[in-house]
Design goal:
Bound molecules: 2'-deoxycytidine-5'-triphosphate, magnesium ion
Number of helices: 13
Oligomer: single chain
Shape: globular
Radius of gyration: 21 Å
């Protein structure tokens, strides 16, 4: 039986700003681009969230919801600096750390013997050390797998610590709404809701073959997740073969122009993740598009650095294959394994 921690800082960019300028602590703040320049909110503190201010919202809209909102431009260098300190504390507990972004990581603590092997103690230690040494509050979840650990870290946010012991996992999952399952976006949720499947309990009543008929490979994943099963390993930097980000949109994106607009925030997130991994050896770039008929396509090409222009071209090529409304966009880089020879194909080519 494995033991996994998921740790995620509370309102990370905003927390760093509040730490460095205490006068911001009791007012609603957001980190993002200026409204006059059609900026977008990256994150906000919990006070601002009470007004409905959310990540990815236009700053102009956020200011209408909360006129006294203080909008602060991001300072990524400072956030990266804090992130490195936090990631170093994770590594004091275990070498098996998989960073997901600047403020978030999975830790496999199965073989940690300190703290009598208690996941709860380890989680508390992480929270205390990170708070003392960096001034940042982190929410931590402990569970037998990644899926449940991530749900657990969110369960008592902010400043949370929540443990799902293995014997409680199946019962815990029963009541979960299906939209909390990783990979279930608004469209899948709607499709399930049409069959009155809103919780994992209801999902468990559907047979594996029915789910696979409806959702293909993802059907098996749904079948397992509904039972609290998730075999994914915590993948450390050394073993990682790719870095990617993807988003399922609340509404399908109708045109290629609109896809271009939605693509930029994804590229920025990917860029952040790639930087988070130091200087990984990139050998390919890829773009994934899922259409509203649930087909998907991936375009990739050789490349040794994140080139936004190339990625836009791949997006255009992938989109033009079906030219249907888009429900999901993904973008990523494939990495050269530590000792593999580099062999770079010269032309963009199809994957599937
Ligand atoms: N971020 C961003 N754009 C988004 C989402 C996040 O730029 N659409 C940035 C700002 C966040 C950081 O990434 O501070 C971490 O993302 P999280 O989703 O963990 O959000 P927060 O840490 O801000 O809040 P929470 O307390 O919900 O974790
Ligand atoms: Mg966070």
């Amino acid at each position: 039986m494995r033991k996994i921690i998921h740790a995620d800082c509370d309102c990370f960019y905003a927390a760093v700003e509040m730490r460095d300028n205490p006068s911001l602590q009791n007012i609603p703040i957001a980190i993002g681009g200026a409204a006059e320049r059609r900026g977008v909110i990256a994150t906000s503190n919990y006070l601002a969230r009470q007004f409905g201010v959310r990540s990815a919202m236009a700053t102009a809209h956020a200011l209408r919801l909360c006129p006294e909102l203080r909008v602060i431009p991001p300072d990524f260098v400072r956030y990266q600096h804090v992130s490195q300190k936090i990631q170093a504390i994770f590594h004091e507990l275990t070498p098996v750390v998989e960073p997901l972004s600047l403020d978030e990581a999975y830790l496999d603590i199965t073989h940690v013997t300190r703290f009598s092997g208690s996941g709860t103690w380890m989680a508390q230690w992480l929270k205390d050390e990170i708070k003392t040494r960096t001034g940042i509050a982190v929410s931590v979840g402990v569970a037998p797998n990644k899926f449940l650990a991530k749900i657990a870290s969110d369960w008592r946010k902010p400043d949370g610590l929540f443990v799902i012991p293995p014997q409680d996992a199946a019962a815990f999952v029963t009541a979960l709404p299906v939209d909390l399952l990783p990979g279930v976006g608004p469209a899948t949720q709607t499709r399930l809701a049409q069959q009155e499947i809103n919780t994992c309990q209801a999902l468990r009543n559907v047979s594996l073959s029915t789910l696979m008929d409806q959702f293909g490979k993802f059907g098996r994943r749904l079948y397992e997740l509904a039972r609290g099963i998730d075999e994914r390993d915590v993948v450390t930097q050394r073993e990682r073969k790719s870095i990617s980000v993807e988003t399922t949109f609340p509404q399908d994106i109708a045109s290629l122009d609109a896809c271009h607009e939605a693509f930029l925030p994804l590229l920025e997130r990917l860029d952040e993740r790639v930087q988070r991994h130091g200087a990984p050896r990139i050998n390919k770039l890829f773009v994934k598009v899922r259409f509203n008929d649930f087909t998907h396509t991936t375009m990739e090409c050789a490349g040794v650095a994140l080139c936004f222009g190339t990625l836009y071209t791949l997006l255009d090529q992938a989109w033009s294959r079906r030219a249907l409304p888009v429900r999901l966009l993904g973008v990523g880089v494939r990495l050269t394994p530590p000792d593999a020879h580099r062999q770079l194909p010269l032309f963009a080519h199809d994957v599937d």
